[in-house]
Amino acid sequence: METLKGKPIASSPSRQKRPLLLYLPGMDGTGKLFYRQAQALQAEFHVRPLSLNHPAAGQSWESLADWVGSQLDEGAYLCGESFGACLALAVAAQQPERCRGLILVNPASSLRRRPWWWAGHVLLPFLPPALYHQMAERGLGFLAELSQMEPPDRERLRQAVHSVEPTVAAQRLALLGSFVVEELPLESMTLPTLLVAGGRDRLLPSVQEVQRLAERLPQAQVEISPLSGHACLLERQMNLRRYLLKPDGVFAPLLLNSAPAH
Known about the structure:
Blueprint lengths: L1 E3 L2 E3 L3 H5 L2 E5 L10 H7 L4 E4 L11 H11 L4 E6 L1 H12 L4 E7 L11 H7 L5 H10 L1 H4 L7 H12 L3 H13 L14 E6 L7 H9 L5 E6 L14 H5 L7 H4 L7
Parallel strand pairs: 3-4, 3-5, 5-6, 6-7, 7-8
Antiparallel strand pairs: 1-2
Helix pairs in contact: 3-4, 5-9
């Protein structure tokens, strides 16, 4: 049984027949910030958000990828946001036969090329808790385009950001610093891949990064949301379903025949 907005949603026979879509979250790791998209995608997918804070998930790319792989049904879809997009690529490279498609939202694969990541992962564990949370609060406007979110969604984002301990944030920054996407065999990955970037991402150069990845992925579809920030899946205008069901999109052959009209 999954939960959306904290409310249980019972599985039905029709939902059980739909392909699994695993959501891999960003730096917060909670898996609790996908509810807006999950509601829209329930017609096509059995949506299951994963929490990277699970004790069995591990703290290395290898252990994380193995753990996610253990959650996959045959022919599952992976939707990764930021940190989770890097993890989705790692899983797909490791177990391509178990994945049916990828959805990568503002992938953080460019972070190691940013000058500030090293200082962040080194200094974060030494910050006093009060200062750390003060910085997290002030950084919300940098992380997200808050004007594009409803007040309850902004609060959910704030809670998720504050839930991350400094040591965990530092550890995930270190992982991103060690993630070398150039070493992944993207050219041989024939999975349909939707790449989504926010045009107002102030955290990372996501527009350039998705275009860069698309040049290497054989079946890539790039969608730029001009008014979106980095944490864009809570924004009122963001609709992954619309991108996935585009008649000329890479997912159309898989989804359009079975997609009910809205």
